[in-house]
């Protein structure tokens, strides 16, 4: 089955527990449709670069799945219909990273600083 990574942003007026419950809710949709959740992360409450549906901040969540395309389409369809979800991004990947995402790593634990282009 194909591997996917999903990031979604939930409304700012939800509690942390409600935002984490959304991860479980959408993960259950994947498992009910023949897929499996490889991992999930709650990235926290962050400020967005611009307003989305009158929200300046949002709860960010990340899912790693191994699921058929039909399960992913169903989950995305329900996410777009859900009132608490502001944005959804799904990316098909070749392999999942074993280590935590860059959002979950502390600044001092990151492997190398990014190189800056000098002109």
Euclidean distance between termini CA atoms:
45 Å
* DSSP helix fraction: 25-40%
Largest sheet: 4 strands, antiparallel
Large-scale geometry:
globular
Strand-residue proportion: 35-45%
How many strands in all?
4
C-alpha Rg, in Å? 15 Å
Please mark out the parts with pLDDT under 50 across 5 or more consecutive residues, or reply none.
none
- The averaged pLDDT comes out at 87
Q: What structural class do you assign from the helix and strand content?
A: alpha+beta
- The neighbouring-strand order within the major sheet is 2-3-1-4
By DSSP (H or I, 4+ residues per run), the number of helices equals 2
Order of helices and strands: EHEEHE
Overview of the molecule:
The protein is of the alpha+beta class and 119 residues long. It is 25% helix and 39% strand. The chain has helices at 16-32, 69-81, and strands at residues 3-10, 36-52, 55-66, 85-93. It has a four-stranded antiparallel beta sheet. A hairpin with a 2-residue loop joins strand 2 and strand 3. Helix 1 runs antiparallel to helix 2. The longest helix is centred in the N-terminal third of the chain and has 17 residues, at 16-32. The radius of gyration is 15 Å and the shape is globular. The mean pLDDT is 87.
């Amino acid at each position: 089955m194909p591997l996917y990574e999903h990031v979604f942003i939930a409304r700012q007026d939800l509690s942390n527990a409600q935002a984490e419950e959304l991860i479980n809710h959408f993960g259950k949709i994947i498992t009910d449709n023949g897929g499996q959740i490889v991992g999930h992360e709650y990235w926290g409450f962050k400020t967005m670069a611009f307003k989305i549906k009158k929200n300046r901040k949002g709860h960010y969540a990340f899912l790693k799945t191994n699921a058929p395309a039909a399960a992913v389409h169903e989950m995305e369809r329900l996410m777009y219909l859900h009132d608490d979800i502001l944005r959804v991004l799904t990316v098909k990947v070749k392999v999942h990273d074993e280590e935590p995402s860059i959002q979950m790593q502390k600044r001092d634990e990151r492997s190398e600083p990014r190189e800056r282009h000098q002109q």
